[in-house]
Amino acid sequence: MPKMCQEYMTLSAYISQVKGLIEDAGGLPGWIVCELANVNWNRGHCYLELVETSAGGVVEAKARGTIWSYRAAALSQTFENSCGAPLRKGIKVMLYVQSQMSELYGFSLNVLDLDPSYTLGDLEAKKQATLKRLAQEDLLERNKELEVPALPYRIAIVSAEGAAGYGDFMKHLKDSGVDFEVELFEAAMQGDSAPESISSAFSLIEERAGEFDTVAFIRGGGSNLDLACFDDYLIARSIALCSLPVISGIGHERDNHICDEVASVRVKTPTGAADFLIQRFADAYETITDLEQRLIDAYSEFLDESSDILERYSLRISSALGRFAEVRLDALKDLEHRIDSAASERILGEFHRLDILRHRVGQTVTFMTFQQQNHLEASAVRLRDIFQKRLMNEGFWLEMMQTRFEGADPTKILEKGYGIILDAEGRKVKDVLQIEEGSRIAIMMKDGKVVFTTREVVHEKK
């Protein structure tokens, strides 16, 4: 510690001496890199708080900076034109500064110029570092491995309620006519609070993952700095670890962020996310409609074939009826009528069941998934087999009836040694009451007939 001496100077004199040294060195001009801890505008002047922090976030240096009004507007406009946003808190910048000292205001830096390309480069460097970290943690492809369901109608949305992008997204869903079930998990979509807010929203969704089919992560366009938060590690990690497939629709068509890289599906805009969801239902409807038409065509063809088979059987029956004895003609005609009626009822029944099937298929359009295709095709095969079996059974029954009727042919009966009793007028006698004593009776046999006159008629009482 220096010894006390009689010579000393006042504070103002000391500062004035330091000020002189700085001025003698021309203000020590040079380019510096720092972070803007605060930005304030007053009467055209831009007042900055400059800091340098370590990797652990500890402030290692701090200084005041000023862009005087005669160059503040021009420098601010240059920065905004390059970066898409004005100077603001939390970004890294490269400034060309000159030191100055004031007896009243102390040390400060006079900002003479800035380099916007450094800020853009810093954002890109952070983005690449985040991508590398996600790759090392095997998180880049994790959510991509989850597929959006064929009919995703339960949608969890991460966005800001008043944002234009959210409004466009909801309008597209409403105009589609599909009855989507949506729930908004509101989050800040820009600024320093965005990463933590978005991560919290995904945590809430994860607690209720079973209630949703997919997550729509949406925000409208903005400047590079406005959208820089979507390259943040915390947001990317939340998306990657989500157990539901995430649809990312952030910014404009030209924008590409890390959240797009880790999401299951990346679309260009919030309306693009809505269009993606709507198209899933359009594709499913087209598939189901095609399956419905194929099923209808198959049934129509099958029924045509069935009608041909029934017609052939009808012709066979008619041919057999022509060979039967006259005494059985009425019975055979009645049988033919019953067969035709039964066949018509079966055909009408099949058409009725087909109409019911068409109605049911139409009702399930918005709920069927691609997995129902196999079920429909299997049902068609089973129904075809059942109908073929029924037709075969009807054929067997008809052939059996034909055999019975052929066996009932009177000529067949006569060949077995039986006879038919006829009265004098040639009518068949079925009952002894039809015969009187002294009447002429004939017995027809296979090789002729015997005619005689009755002498006695005996009635056996039952």
Description:
The chain is 48% helix and 20% strand. With 462 residues, the protein is an alpha/beta fold. It is rod-shaped, with a radius of gyration of 49 Å. The termini are far apart. The relative contact order is 0.07.
List keywords for this structure.
462 residues; Rossmann fold; 4 domains; alpha/beta; 5-stranded parallel sheet; OB fold (Dihydrolipoamide Acetyltransferase, E2P); single chain; 11 helices
TL;DR of this structure?
The protein is 48% helix and 20% strand. The protein is of the alpha/beta class. α5 (194-207) packs parallel to α6 and α8 (270-323) runs parallel beside α10.
Described by strand count, sense and barrel closure, the largest sheet is: 5 strands, mixed, barrel
- Following the backbone from N to C, one meets helices and strands in this order, namely HEEEHEEHEHEHEHEHEHHHHEEE
Mean pLDDT comes to: 82
Kindly estimate the percentage of residues that lie in beta strands according to DSSP: 15-25%
Give the uncertain stretches in residue-range form: none
DSSP strand count: 13
How much helix is in the residues?
Answer: 40-55%
- Judged by helices, strands and strand pairing, the structural class is alpha/beta
CATH C-level class of the largest domain: Alpha Beta
Major sheet: arrangement of strands = 1-2-3-5-4
Total helical segments? 11
